[in-house]
Design goal:
There is one protein chain. By secondary structure, the protein is mostly helical. The chain has 2 domains: 21-215, Growth Hormone, Chain: A, CATH 1.20.1250; 222-414, Growth Hormone, Chain: A (Up-down Bundle). Helices cover 77% and strands 0% of the residues. The protein is built from 18 helices and no strands. Helix 16 packs antiparallel against helix 17. 48% of the residues are buried. It is a multi-pass membrane protein. It is found in: Cell membrane. It comes from Streptomyces shenzhenensis.
């Protein structure tokens, strides 16, 4: 299956921008993008249903369910920087293969786990697996996108946009697959998720080169001290963290707003589907359009302004206290504007990391981008939760959330003269 998908197809007539970009990619880039699709299918076939399983089937208390979910996030996002360091030291292939083995074991264990210690251990294993293979895949995609750009195919952001769209497609298909498998039971969904990673493991063991041309392994220790002194990179982390904080409101502030307007959270699934489909179908055209007009800094700035506008829409409409279909329009506007901002921010941030990283340490910096941003989200989400529970006027939390991305626009690093030229798409 992998070999057929990686092979080039013969031209049969006019093709879409996505198809033209896909045909220009190297076999390695195709493998990595398909990997991101498979990762998310396997992951989202299980994790969206975990809280319900822990609360009803196993009978965990609500606080313990939240604790377990928080541990999974920490073991993944918080340890990205370790995964990135391992990639720089040992290479992409071994880190991805070990990560897949751990994810297979974690999902299989979770399917049979009933005791609290077993559930926690399996969830930690699932999270740590992602902390290994995600920085490996993301850093190599960023590096290969630079090569693609240097070969004259267009802006590197187009490759990273296709990577993001593949991830969102997996995030859309995964829950649908999991929902069907839950008709049997949760264990079946877990084993199916493990099966997806068995296929990924086999594909990488067969197709991933043992040595990737141009990638030099860093044998010496260190790098973290220089990273912490890299003010331009840390500024990028702060700006990216503000976006992730905004994205996290899909799970924190938005459900409350939907519940208020509709009387239930049923419309949430449709709003999530809207977000995923927008990225799947519009990510590459948006990136192609902006790639001809904006450099990386301006693309991120425009994305942050769009995110702020999404919060502002709800803040302005909230005092009217609309309910029913009309009451859901501000929430839908927020989702659309947030997703459009995401389409500009995510490829630009990932494309910017190689310019700010030390030679040979793209993995470390790619992992640190997620880890540092994750800390910002953890602190910011706690503050947001306090605001939502503080009895403030309804529009205030949304207005304050709108101010955060606006303020971080000023933190975006100024690019050196050599980096300011936008590549033609």
């Amino acid at each position: 299956m992998f070999s057929r998908l990686l092979s080039k197809r013969r031209a049969t007539g006019p093709r879409s921008p996505r198809e033209r970009t896909w045909r220009q990619l190297s076999p390695l880039l195709r493998l990595l993008i398909l990997t991101q699709l498979a990762f998310n299918i396997g992951f989202f076939a299980v994790l969206p249903f975990l809280a319900e399983h822990l609360g009803t089937a196993i009978g965990m208390a609500g606080w313990l369910v939240g604790f377990v979910l928080g541990l999974r996030t920490f073991s993944q996002q918080g340890l990205f920087v370790i995964g990135g360091w391992l990639v720089d030291r040992y290479g992409v292939r071994p880190v991805v293969l070990v990560g897949c083995v751990l994810r297979i074991g974690g999902f299989a264990w979770l399917g049979f786990a009933e005791a609290t210690w077993a559930v926690i251990s399996s969830v930690l294993l699932i999270g740590f697996a992602a902390a290994l293979f995600s920085p490996a895949v993301e850093s190599e995609v960023a590096r290969q996108a630079m090569v693609w750009e240097e070969d004259g195919h267009g802006s590197r952001t187009r490759v990273l946009a296709l990577f993001s769209a593949a991830g969102q497609a997996g995030a859309f298909v995964g829950p649908l697959l999991g929902g069907l498998l839950l008709a049997v039971d949760f264990r079946t969904a877990c084993l199916a998720g493990a099966g997806v990673f068995v296929l990924v493991l086999a594909g990488h063991a067969w197709l991933m080169p043992r040595h990737i041309p141009g990638r030099v392994r860093v044998r010496d220790r260190g790098g973290v001290r220089e990273l912490l002194r890299n003010r331009r990179f840390l500024s990028l982390c702060c700006a990216y963290g503000s976006y992730l904080l905004a994205y996290n409101q899909l799970y924190l502030a938005l459900p409350d707003e939907v519940e208020r307007a509709a009387g239930s959270q049923t419309p949430l699934s449709w709003l999530f589907a809207l977000s995923s489909l927008l990225v799947v179908f519009a990510q590459l055209p948006v990136t192609r359009w902006t790639g001809d007009r904006l450099d990386l800094r301006r693309s991120m700035a425009a994305g942050l302004w769009l995110v702020a506008a999404g919060f502002a829409v709800v803040a302005v409409a909230r005092p009217a206290d609309w309910t029913g279909p009309a009451g859901l329009l501000p929430a839908a506007g927020f989702v659309v504007l947030l997703t459009l901002g995401q389409m500009l921010i995510v490829p630009a941030a990932r494309a910017w990391v190689p310019d700010l990283a030390e030679e040979g340490r793209i993995g470390l910096y790619t992992g640190a981008l997620s880890s540092v941003s994750g800390v910002i989200v953890l602190i910011g989400s706690s503050a947001t939760g306090s605001m939502l529970d503080a009895g403030l006027p309804a529009a205030v939390p949304w207005a304050l959330l709108a101010a955060v991305p606006v303020l971080t626009v000023g933190l975006l690093p100024r690019r050196p003269e050599a980096d300011t030229q936008t590549q033609a798409a």
